[in-house]
Design goal:
The chain is of the alpha+beta class. About 40% of the residues lie in helices and about 20% in strands. The chain is globular, with a radius of gyration of 46 Å.
């Protein structure tokens, strides 16, 4: 009996040792794999996930602004904010609006929807207006105004149109992407152009034609009288010659 008891004790000890040696391997096999390192954000991926921004994506690709923005995100400390118009927003534009723009104007339109700073929804309440966008022209950067109220409603005004900021497709540093129901139309491209002034008349005179600019209306003094005086002088000479001829004929008869 004693020998049998010792045998059981030895067997139990070996079993416990085997379990102790195999336990770490089992735990390692069941442990989840470490998460892959998170890469820089990609605006195209964010818009694709949103599912209703295909027109804006095509416009960004055609102007190469998607590649440029994704590259800028890699080394940005301030971050970026993108206002992404929905497909319905582009459908609401007047027919031919995009096709009427030059290539550079299309670039400016896309850049007008990008701000070179990260904005959370809460930070819009303290935004200093006007807000500079990435678009610019001969008069400087294209700007827009962003206002927010205590209820969290955010609105954007361009001077041509206004719209509300919708849901956040992404709002994590360094990239924020917000949906908008209207295309942001910059005043520099779509605003009312001032009327052009009338071109000056020849010789610097106004449209009335008065003054020295109209030689046809005012001939030089005495110019109209010159032909009349010449004709009168010629008539006097002819009359003198006729009288001389008469006198000569009368003398020949004497």
């Amino acid at each position: 009996m004693a020998a049998a008891a010792r045998s059981l004790v030895v067997a139990a000890a070996f079993l416990a040792l085997a379990l102790a040696m195999s336990l770490p391997a089992a735990v390692l096999c069941q442990a989840p794999a470490p998460a892959a390192p998170k890469g820089p954000p990609n605006v195209t991926a964010v818009l694709e996930k949103g599912g209703q921004y295909s027109t804006f994506m095509r416009l960004m690709k055609a102007t190469q602004q998607d590649t440029q923005l994704n590259s800028q995100l890699n080394g940005s400390s301030n971050g970026y904010t993108v206002f992404a118009p929905t497909d319905n927003a582009f459908s609401s534009l007047k027919a031919g609006t995009l096709n009427s723009l030059t290539q550079q104007e299309q670039v400016s339109l896309v850049q007008y929807h990008i701000v070179s700073q990260f904005y959370s929804l809460a930070s819009f309440e303290t935004t200093s207006n006007p807000v500079r966008t990435q678009a610019s022209g001969s008069d400087g950067p294209y700007t827009l105004n962003i206002t927010a109220n205590s209820n969290g409603n955010v609105n954007i005004s361009t001077g041509v149109m206004a719209t509300a900021v919708g849901t956040a497709l992404r709002a994590e540093q360094p990239l924020a992407v917000y949906s908008v129901d209207k295309v942001l139309l910059p005043n520099d491209l779509f605003g009312v152009k001032p009327p052009q002034s009338a071109p000056p008349a020849p010789n610097g005179k106004g449209p009335s034609g008065k003054g020295h600019g109209s030689s046809a209306a005012h001939a030089p003094a005495g110019a109209a009288d010159t032909p009349t005086k010449g004709a009168a002088a010629a008539g006097v000479r002819v009359a003198g010659w006729s009288l001389a001829a008469v006198l000569a004929a009368a003398a020949s008869l004497l």
